[in-house]
Design goal:
This protein has 17 helices and 22 strands. The protein is α/β, with parallel strands linked by helices and 529 residues long. Among the domains are: 95 residues, Roll (Ubiquitin-like (UB roll)); 173 residues, Nucleotidyltransferase, domain 5 (2-Layer Sandwich); 83 residues, no CATH class. The strands form 5 sheets. A 6-stranded mixed β-sheet has the order 8-7-6-9-11-10, sandwiched between helices. Helix 6 crosses helix 7 and helix 9 packs across helix 15. It is globular and about 65 Å long.
Length: 529
């Protein structure tokens, strides 16, 4: 018998033969589950306040003994044999609710699009369906100015942090996941407009899996070789056709909606929009676009040809699979600086988001800390911590029982992520017959790239050292491209996209990829390329 009773805010009585996480999710109570409930990410933290809750091996990895004694457990692995009362701690709620999308983009800062518009009136809505966050922008169609922007968490995140987890979850939950995203889009548009006016048109982009889930398409073929999408084509429809039963009452059903085209199964419409925002369809120099995340999409423009690829980096850049890793939320350590005191002892100075007490390490903090460890020679070029830190890890924040450590395993997780990205960069350069120093401009897209310390990224050899001084944070280039699409002359985007020479490169099929991948795990530039 399954029962969920709300006792108080964030406190529930649960009686079920399934996991606490599954029951919470089905009742619309979202908590982090980056690994899609497999007990690996350690994010679905709850406190059992009453009832029997056996401690699993994964619980022991995720929590200190004091926390276990307090009743901390992983919700995905707790299957109550009888009723249990659980509480969702504030730290878990905060981690799930505070993700936000970057609302700056390269198109705003690098060029004025006023005067390049199609002469439209009113406003349009740009919608970026990210794997983690949803971003919405209200655009003045006459000037290209963004009047308002809002963001929200993608509710599908509860089914896993990466696209492969979403594909797996869609087997049996596809209809529910489509309902979740349509409802979230309707809510986001209502927040954007507050029923004060109506958009004249709506433009949407996202990676291929996100758009397939939005449209209710079968995603199973995207999860296995040869990774066949149902469609990559631009889709033009009405709000009524897109939302169906979930159409907001205030939104006229005849409003035109465009879903931008993708390039491949893992280089989607969000990258197409980013390329448009950064002029990759018209520029004459050599430029590189890199969107860092669980899936690192990249594109290199050389002599009029666009070489594109996608590298499976894993969740480390978002704090996943890191012992004290968390997302970019308040309390997340986003930057670390190391120095020696008068006695030669290592001292760390940390910056946490929101100036809060350090609660964990996010992706940018992970990169800056490892770069500092390398600079201070507390870690060698292979990623091996010095003997004094090898067993327990390097303490970088907090004290006593609240000390945060970077472990040897954490460094290896980062090496796997950076190895995939750096190998992909090397393959694209080689395919175009270029050296890294022949690239004129490098754009880092997305929220992670926006906040990333590029000096630290170069310090750990994630990016080639010769790119120093050539890197621009493009911000939300997807929104930037959608803004340009909404305000450009009719047919401009379609003409440029259809004319583009695009060569998709499957990294896994390149004979030297795994050699380059292994080499790229090193923290010494001379060992790469």
């Amino acid at each position: 018998m399954e029962q969920v009773t709300v006792i108080a805010k964030d406190e529930f009585f649960i009686q079920s033969e399934r996991s606490v996480l599954a029951v919470l999710q089905e009742n619309g109570i979202a908590i982090p589950a980056s690994c899609s409930g497999r007990g690996r990410c350690g994010k679905c933290r709850i406190i059992v306040t009453d009832g029997d809750a056996p401690i699993t091996a994964e619980d022991r990895k995720a929590f200190r003994q004091e926390e276990l004694d307090e009743g901390y457990r992983l919700a995905c692995l707790l299957v109550p044999s009888a009723g249990v009362t659980i509480r969702i701690p504030e730290s878990t709620r905060r981690a799930e609710e505070q993700y936000h999308a970057v609302d700056a983009f390269a198109g705003n800062g690098e060029k004025d699009i006023e005067g390049d518009t199609g002469g439209f009136e009113g406003t349009g809505a740009a919608v970026d369906i990210g794997t983690t966050t949803l971003a919405f922008a209200k655009v003045d169609l006459a000037t290209g100015a963004v009047r308002k922007s809002v963001s929200a968490m993608n509710p599908q995140r509860q089914h896993g942090a990466d696209v492969l987890s979403r594909i797996a979850a869609a087997d049996g939950l596809g209809g529910k996941m489509q309902e979740e995203i349509l409802t979230a889009l309707a809510q986001g548009l209502e927040r954007l407009y507050r029923s004060e006016e109506r958009p004249e048109r709506i433009a949407v982009a996202g990676n291929t899996v996100m758009l397939h889930l939005l449209r209710g398409y079968d995603v199973s073929e995207l999860g296995r070789i040869p990774f066949r999408p149902v469609t990559l084509e631009e889709e033009n429809l009405t709000a009524g056709e897109l939302f169906g039963a979930y159409l907001p009452a205030w939104l006229p059903k005849e409003i035109p909606v465009c879903l931008l085209p993708g390039i491949s199964a893992f280089v989607g419409a969000d990258i197409t929009a980013g390329l448009y925002a950064c002029d990759f369809f018209t520029r004459k120099d050599r430029a590189f676009l890199l969107d860092l995340g669980t899936n690192g999409e990249m594109a290199l423009l050389s002599d009029g040809v666009l070489y594109t690829a996608s590298a499976a980096a894993g969740p480390a850049f978002e704090g996943g699979n890191i012992s004290c890793g968390i997302g970019s939320v308040e309390g997340a350590v986003s930057d670390v600086r190391l120095y020696r005191d008068a006695d030669g002892a290592m001292v760390s100075k940390t910056t946490a988001i929101g100036n809060q007490k350090p609660a964990g390490l996010c992706g940018t903090g992970l990169i800056s800390l490892i770069s500092e460890l390398k600079r201070e020679e507390a870690m060698d070029e292979t990623g091996l911590l010095n003997e004094e830190y090898f067993e327990s890890g390097f303490p970088f924040a907090g004290e006593g029982n609240e000390t945060l450590y970077l472990t040897q395993k954490d460094i290896r997780e980062l090496q796997l992520a950076k190895g995939a990205i750096r190998a992909g960069i090397s393959i694209l350069l080689a395919r175009a017959g270029l050296r890294a120093d022949e690239v004129d401009k490098v754009y880092l897209a997305g929220g992670f790239g926006f906040y990333l310390d590029t000096g630290a990224a170069i310090g750990i050899c994630l990016l080639p050292s010769v790119w120093s001084g050539r890197i621009t944070a493009a911000g939300n280039s997807c929104i930037g491209g959608l803004v340009r699409y909404l305000t450009a002359k009719n047919g401009e985007f379609e003409t440029l996209f259809n004319r583009a020479q695009i060569q998709e490169i499957n990294l896994a099929e390149q004979p030297d990829f795994y050699d380059k991948y292994t080499e790229a795990m090193a923290f010494e530039e001379e060992m790469l390329d």
